[in-house]
Amino acid sequence: MHMVGILTTLAWRNLWRNHRRTLIMLAAVILGTWAMIFMTALMRGMVTQMIQDGISALPGHIQVHHPEYRDDPSVANLISISDTELAAKFEAADIAHWATRVRVPAVITSEYESRGITLLGVDPDRERGLTFVDYDEVEGRFLESTEDTGIVIGKKLAKMLNTRVGKRVVVMSQDPDNEIADRGFRVVGLFTANVSAFEEAFIFAGKSTTQKLLRIDDQVSELIVFGDDYRNVEALYDKVSAIVDSRVEVRRWFEVDAYLGAMLTIMDGFVFVWIIVIFLALSFGLVNTLVMAVFERVREIGLMLALGMKPVYILGQIIIESMMLLVIGLVLGTALSWAAIQPIKDGIDISIVGEGLDMWGMSSVLYPDLLLRDVILANVVVLVLGFFASLAPAWRAAHYEPVAALTKV
Amino acid sequence: MILVFRLAWRNLWRHPRRTWLTIGAMMFSNMLLVFMISLQFGMYGLMIDNSLQAFTGHMQIQAPGYKDDQRMRQTVADIVPLSDLLRRELGSDDIAARASAFALVSSDERSYGIAVFGVEPEFEVNVSTIPGLIGEGRYLGDNAATEIVIGAALARNLRVKLGAELTLLGSGLDGSFAAAVVTIVGIFDSGLAEIDRSIVEIPLGLFQDVFYMRGAGHLVVINAPVIDDVAELQIRVNALLPAGHDLVVHDWDALQPGLKQAIRADISSSFFMYGILVILVAFSVLNTQLMSVLERTHEFGIVMALGLTPGRLAWLVLLETAIMGVLGLLLGALLGALVTYYFSINGFAYPGMAEMAAKFNLPARFFPQITVLTLLIGPIVVYLFTMLSALYPALRLHRLHPVAAMRAV
């Protein structure tokens, strides 16, 4: 224990013998750490936003459908689930956020134009906060009940159809017997969405109204369930599977949208690769610094060996020196990245490239997402790999022949 | 000059390990940059080509406003004579007229609302990849035949096979009721559900008949031989438009603004990362050169006392860096080229990339393309930063005083 104290003191003093060199290396470690953590937080934020927007359109962390629905998402594949029965069971299972909805392809026609869209028959009270529509941002109003006879469409769609709040439109779809089902609706609200493509793709009507229109009694297309965290939906999946009967298909969000699911995997891989790449770029400088530090102390190391210091202490001293440098760099670098994230915590506008991001399914405000997991990963990777990188120069120093080292000029 | 060069060369190899580590840092980042940039630019090219060749084309002639609203009455009058004229005057067959309308497409069992395109079968082949993707049956033939080609996903959802009849219901240009019965002669499979589900094509002649177009259409697609010729071709097309017309020519960037922006977003985020990498290398070089200057203080003092000016010494240090930089550049570029070459033969894949690639009409494996630009841009930037970072140690020499320097150990 006593030896460790001495070695630490020695390492610390050695570190500052050539303060310029140490400071340059320190700057490199700080910059590297900052780049690792800050960039990761930005990328994570981008992906989180993308997945959340994606899930809000699916929507839901867990979805329940008719088994045939996946291949044929039409009015022919419905499920019979009673909301009142569900409510009791979900409450017992402590699941608060869920809704059932009708979701069918339809055609909307104004006096001027027609468009193909997805008609969603929803229960506005149950869906509040679950979808991509913010009820308070709707121009006009959102639906008020499942019996509401109005319709809410996207701003962009309204422009294409040349219609507005208060005007009438006709919605046409088909019932399970393949008869055309159509009725007129008054446009009561125009919604905006983070991802502007949603404004063209979806329209909202009351669930009961839609069921009447499609002549499907109280059947629905899907049951959607939200948990607390999209990253961890297994527990929720098990609960929901236990509640619904076996004639339906229960799927997790990443099974519904493979693209979104793949994003998470890609992101995890990317974070790791990025941290390793930065470390490698750093490691050349780190090893170089240590090699130099050892080289200029050859005589001194020889002397210590000749006086009877064990080689393992020399090894330890060099490694402690390197670890000290890395720890200081890591602490400052982590602090710096935390500080860099503070001012943009509430989102930075990247709408200069907005439409392009839209194509990727992202919105134009970026919220950095600093995960403790990533911070730990970066720090651990640097420390562990840094340890191994320091071994070679330290090993060399420890194995000098005392006499040869002493006489070296 | 030869003398200075030999001096610099020998100085470098006084510490072979240190020099190699510094060159190693350059090689590492150069290799990475060459590979990544080749991969990215290859990807961008594919992304643009695949997205545009599928359907959009390099440029389109449209009525003003059609691009944003796509309303039925924003037409191009006498569209076939216009596309004939363009083909004749430009001496190119990569020009085809289209019209599009929204219609309810029904089989015996199902109905979907889709955009129906009227195309010139003879020329459409040259401006879109869809005719080439016909998996079953054939592409459209006669310009007035009651035929239709649809995507495989739509065929599945409509539950129809080749040879079945579909009913089209929509409204014509004058707002009147438009209907037609057409036979499926071909089913295409693009592999992208979105395209397969959203595009159906009928002959333009039939389209104009059914939707009462009176010779009008909605757009003329024009492809340039290569994408770089688009700007020049656009000027010629503009000059050929009939006098007193009310038409606009949009290039691909205007038609698909997301494409360029997605690329720009990707470039800016990846260049930020490359920047970090380059700066880390620069730190490494700065450290090495500063060390090598500091340890020669004594020696520099002597030669200065002998009459060598600090300026000459600074050049020596810069020359040393330049030699190191050139070695790093050549070896790094070579290594990068080898890695890139390997992947350009075998393809590069990454877990989860297939799902992501599909979103951008890209194949699941990437084949990076080496060009002079992608090979040299990274290494040259690294080289410049290397030289920049050697400035501080070199300029420090001006502050050196011969007598004091000679006393330094």
List the main descriptive attributes of the protein structure presented here.
heterodimer; A: about 400 residues; alpha+beta; 2 domains; 6-stranded mixed barrel; two-stranded antiparallel sheet; 15 helices; about 55% helix; elongated; B: about 400 residues; 10-stranded mixed β-sheet; 16 helices
Structure description:
The complex is a heterodimer of chains A (409) and B (409). With 409 residues, chain A is α+β, with helices and mostly antiparallel strands. Chain A folds into two domains: 2-54 and 261-407, no CATH class; 60-256, no CATH class. Chain A has helices at residues 2-15, 19-57, 83-92, 124-127, 155-161, 196-201, 207-214, 234-243, 253-256, 258-295, 298-306, 311-341, 354-359, 372-398, 402-407, and strands spanning 62-65, 97-109, 114-122, 139-140, 150-154, 168-174, 180-191, 202-206, 222-226, 249-252, 348-349, 365-366. In chain A, a hairpin with a 4-residue loop joins strand 2 (97-109) and strand 3 (114-122). The mean pLDDT of chain B is 88. In chain B, strand 6 and strand 7 form a beta hairpin. Chain B is 57% helix and 16% strand. By secondary structure, chain B is α+β, with helices and mostly antiparallel strands. Chain B has two domains: 2-52 and 259-407, no CATH class; 59-223, no CATH class. Chain B contains 16 helices and ten strands. Chains A and B meet through helix 2, strand 2, strand 3, strand 6 and helix 10 of A and helix 2, strand 2, strand 3, helix 11 and helix 14 of B.
Count of strand segments of chain A: 12
Query: Count of helical segments of chain A?
Result: 15
Overall, the morphology of chain B is: elongated
Question: Structural class of the secondary elements of chain B?
Answer: alpha+beta
- Which whole number gives the mean pLDDT of chain A? 86
Q: Beta-sheet strand percentage of chain B?
A: 15-25%
Distance between the termini of chain B: 30 Å
Strand order across the largest sheet of chain A? 2-3-8-5-7-6
* Major sheet characteristics of chain A: 6 strands, mixed, barrel
Could you say how many structural domains of chain B there are in total?
2
Low-confidence stretches of chain B: none
Summarize the main sheet of chain B: 10 strands, mixed
Give the topology string of chain B: H per helix, E per strand.
Answer: HHEHHEEHEEHEEHEHEHEHHHHHHH
Helix content of chain A: 40-55%
- Report the structural category of chain A: alpha+beta
The number of helices of chain B is 16
